[in-house]
Design brief:
By secondary structure, this protein is α+β, with helices and mostly antiparallel strands. It has one domain: minor pseudopilin epsh fold. 28% of the residues lie in helices and 21% in strands. The protein is built from one helix and eight strands. The strands form two sheets. It has a four-stranded antiparallel β-sheet with strand order 3-2-1-5, with helices on one face. A four-stranded antiparallel β-sheet has the order 4-6-7-8, with helices on one face. The radius of gyration is 25 Å and the shape is elongated.
């Protein structure tokens, strides 16, 4: 009688291999999740800062006021400056003002819509202080018309320890901060 040798893993070898795989996955998955969340925060921060630079440069190029205003409906055929106080998560629009300095709201007939910003990812929160509450306005010389430093906090479910912050001084130049930003609601 001929003996057939069966090759393969024994039960103890298989259990040890599965145990090693479980240990590796238990350390890798939380790290991957944190990396994804950090990338979402960084992407949103970069998008807002790019839009600030865009609005500032358009104000200088067009020699008019250019305004970023929060909008509850940025994708509507006629978007409006609206939304919850100090909450920019639903999106915003950027427009060149027609010269009517009596208002800081988008007038479909006379203002020029330059850009629509899409709503933030559902897990992110974009909140501003009272200076940046409804809009951020740039003059033709690149400065802002705001009364002080405009602040926006971008946070996810992990809170301010992992948040991002943008500050815009009256000079119109944005600055970015990451890590422990203090508060996800700049006015408290």
């Amino acid at each position: 009688m001929k003996h057939i040798k069966i090759r393969g893993f024994t039960v103890p070898e298989l259990l040890i291999t599965l145990g090693v795989i479980a240990i590796v996955l238990s350390t890798a998955v939380p790290s991957l999740s944190a990396t994804i969340k950090n990338n979402r925060l960084a992407t949103e921060l970069n998008r807002v800062v790019a839009d600030i630079h865009f609005a500032r440069s358009e104000a200088a190029k067009r020699d008019v006021r250019v305004i970023l205003c929060r909008s509850a409906n940025p994708n509507a055929s006629t978007p409006a400056c609206s939304g919850s106080t100090k909450v920019w998560t639903t999106g915003y629009i950027i427009y060149a003002d027609d010269g009517n300095h009596a208002n800081s709201w988008y007038d479909n007939g006379s203002d020029i819509l330059l850009r629509r910003s899409q709503p933030a990812t559902s897990s992110l929160s974009l909140r501003t202080n009272g200076v940046w509450n409804n809009y951020l306005e740039f003059n033709p010389n690149g400065t802002t018309n705001e009364s002080g430093e405009a602040i926006m906090s971008i946070c996810d479910d992990r809170g301010s320890d992992y948040g991002r912050k943008i500050t815009v001084a009256r000079t119109g130049i944005p600055r970015m901060y990451s890590g422990s930003i203090g508060d996800c609601s700049p006015d408290g």
